[in-house]
Structures are given as structure tokens and as C-alpha cells.
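Chain A, query sequence.
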Amino acid sequence: MSVTAFLVSLWLKFRLMKKNILFAFLLISLKTIAQPSYWQQDVRYTINAELNETEKSINGSLSLVYKNNSPHTLEYIWFHIWPNAYKNDSTALRKQLAHDPENKKKKLEKGTGSIEGLAFTVNNVAVQTQPHSNPEYIDIIKVLLQKPLSPGDSITIGTPFKVLLPPYYSRSGYAGSEFMACQWYPKPAVFDQAGWHEFPYLDRGEFYSEYGDYEVKLTLPSSYVVGATGTLMTPEESDQYKKLGNRNVSKRKKHALYVPASGAGTKTLTYRAKHVPDFAWFADKDFVIQYDTIRLRNGQVVDAYCYFHKKRKTMWINSIDYTKDAVKKYSGWIGAYEYPVVQVVEGPENNSSGGMEYPMITLITSPDATEESLDDVITHEVGHNWFMSMLGSNERAHTWMDEGLNTYYEFRYEAEKYRGNSVFGKNIPQNVKKLPVEDFQNLVYKTLSDKVPMNTAMDTPADQFSSNDEYARVSYLKTAVWLYILESAVGKEKVDLAMKNYFTKWKDKHPQPTDMQAAFEDALGVDLKEFFLLTKKEGALTK
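Chain A, predicted structure.
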């Protein structure tokens, strides 16, 4: 071939190669464009509420700015009106409780919880609503928009409301003079890549909520002490809580418990919280306050509060230490606690619960706890600030991403601190408690895997488990065993590395199981066959 012919041939090949490269680039670009990018809705709440302690009710008004960040035009918005779940025996909540024999120990009061007086407006114009087609779902309502909400646009939705609180048996309610305001205000359901998630309130099965900013003003009798999601912005109340809380911490060895002076009339407290999936508050007249601060490795200082009932020689005297230890440990293992405050509240006696978590605050209901088990349950509930709040997975559909991951770290905390485990409690022999932590953990997990029946797949929706016991065994224990199998395969340090990568990528978002797997595999650089075990049903998990 002549030089000229060679050059012509080379030029033609180069032209063809350019076309192929351009074609391949276009294919890649089209694939990238075709893949839906992540988005989530934006909500900003302004709530004014007043407690009527005699009527056991909350009178409120809600105004929220809802921004549609999705690529879809919305003609309606589903709202949860959770208090209606308590209204009668025909709701999904009451039917679930009635059909599970394990719930017979719960005292169910009839017809004493509801939400009334709703009158929705959009941009100050009255709009119509529609009930859910399922008659059991009276705690869900569709708000019809008078004008479609286009992608990128925002609207302001408002409504008055009145909540009649039930006697306490499932998260929200009252017990004596203590009030638990949980799932208490009208709240838009999550709209994500899978569509609307307008499911009802259930006792077995938790929540999935849009992230939002909150400004909440609570008016109540001056004699009440309040703990709530967010930062207390009322200076005189905040200063009093810190002053008394510090004093109670410094005097605790003498069991000196100081409570705020009981005032007459009412007071209004303002709370603010940014980018959280929920807002809850708790109030009682006899709360003792403990207050301290936590300094994290990144230099962040977190305000820590504990609220507990005034009684002689309460085991809650060291609860502030348990709270601080939990925040420090989880921050080191997973990622830094991002909120300005962490709070723990002693609730009414309820052995069927143990505790219930909300952003920046948790309610503990464990009347038979020892000091060690109180530490365990506080740590577990504080841990939900990571697995529920900062990592906002769908708890109803993928409970293991919340309860199970949290249990894995709770078990590590118990093993390192006490050579203990909350499943086995006082039944751990002393010779086992003397083992090195790695050997102790290996024995605990081997016993759980070999002896505890866990036949349902981990990735099972909460409401589809056959019973509360099976739900607990699988969502909590089986998932912890599964993650320990991964730890045994790659090492504890690499599990923490992968979890930190997952936390960094998905903090303040709504991760799915595939997102967690991708974050783990990205951090470790390997395909993790262990994720296929999420759908494994019968038989023990094996390494």
C-alpha cells in the first residue's frame, strides 16, 4: 500500500471511529437522561396549638408551604390525619390490635381519639377533600387542588384542627397528667419515585414522612414542663431548663431533684426544627430535668436533656450519661449527629412498648427496666435519630432498614459497655460476660441464629408479618444477625466504612434497599452477595 493510500485509509478509519465514538457518547447520554434523578418534596410547617388539659384535647391551626420538586404535575395531595385511627373499632389500627392475640395485654379504650374541625384551604381559597376508598382508612384524606401544582411550584395549605387525645395505649395520648402528642397534626403523605404512600396508622408498622422545617408554638398551662422536637426558642423557659437541669446533674449523687416552680395561667413556647421528618412533644407537671452538653469529635456541641418523673431513688438519675454515651458512640460508628439537641423522656408504664422515637426526642416506657436495660433502651431509641430521622427510609415497607440496622449497633454498644445483650438480659452467665468483646458478640449472634426462629424474609412490610413476635424477631434480630454475617466476612472496620458512606450519601433523604447496597459496594469495592439474604425466608442465615 502506498503512503497516500495508507493515509487515505487511516483518514477513513478515523472518520468512522469518530462516528462510533459520537454514537457511543450519544447512547451514554441518552441512558443518563433516561434515568430518573433523585428528588424529594419540600415542606415548611407553621403550627399553633393549645393544650386543654381538662378536655384532653389540642386546638390548633396549620399552615404549610408545599413545594413540588417532582417531575409530575399534582392535582391532589394525600394527608395523614392520624388521630382518627383511634376513633372506633373499624379503623385499620383497631382491627390490627384486635386480631393479634399478643395485644390482649393492651387496654383499649373506645371512641376517645379523633381529629375534627378540618377546613382545608390552598392559597387562602377553600378546597374540597375526599375520603379514602378503603373505609378502614378514616385517618387519610385527599386534598383536591383547585389548580394543578406544576413541577417546581409551591402552594400554601392551611387548616384549623382539633385533636381529642385517647388514653395512652399506642404512641399518642394521655396518662394521668402526662401528655404524649405524637402523629397529632395533619401531615402530607410522602410522594416519591414510587408514587404516593398514603397508608393508615398502625400499631405494628411505623412511618414514612417528608422532610420539613417546623415552627411550632405551643400554649399550655404554666405548670407543665415540655420536651419537644427542635430547639426551644423561648429564652426564659430555655434558661430555666438549663439552669435546673445542670443543678440536677451536679446534685444527683445526693438524689436531690429540683423541678421548675409551678406558675399560674398559661405560657406559649416556640420550637424550631430544620429538615426533620416529624414533630412530637411531651408534657407533664412533675418532670425533673437533667441538662448537659455533648462535644462531638468534629467540634459540634449538642444540648442533651432528660425529663423524668420525680420519685425516690429513680434509676433515671444517670439517664443523661446514657444519652450522651449513645450520641457519642453512634456518631463515631455511623456519622456525626447533625441536630442541635437530643432529648429523652420518661413516659407512662407500658411494657408492651419499651420506647418510641421521634426526631431529637424519644419516649421511654419501660417500667421494669434495670439500670443496664434502661441504658440499652435509651441507646436504641436515641439511635433512631440515625435510622429513621437522618436516614429517612420507608419504615412501613422496609422495617429492617430502621429497626434492624439500629439493633446491630445497639448490640455492639451493649457488648462493649456491659458484655450484655438486651435479648438475653440477666440470663448471660458470668463466665460468658468475661469473654473478650469479639468472642462475646460471636457467641451472642451464634445463639440468636441457631435458637431463635426467624422464618420470614427481612424485607417484608411491617403489616404483613403474622404476629408482633415474628415482626420483632425478623425486623430487629434477623437483620442484626445478617449485618453481623457481613461483619464476619469483611471486618467491623469495613462495615463502619460502608455505613458511613451510606450515611454521607443518603443523610436527610429517602434511601431504598438498593441505595444502601450501592453505597456499601461502592465503599468496599466488591459485590456483596449478602444483600440477597434480605429476601431469604425459611431457615437460619448462614455465612
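Residues 3-34 form the longest helix (32 residues). Residues 1-35 have pLDDT under 50 and may be disordered.
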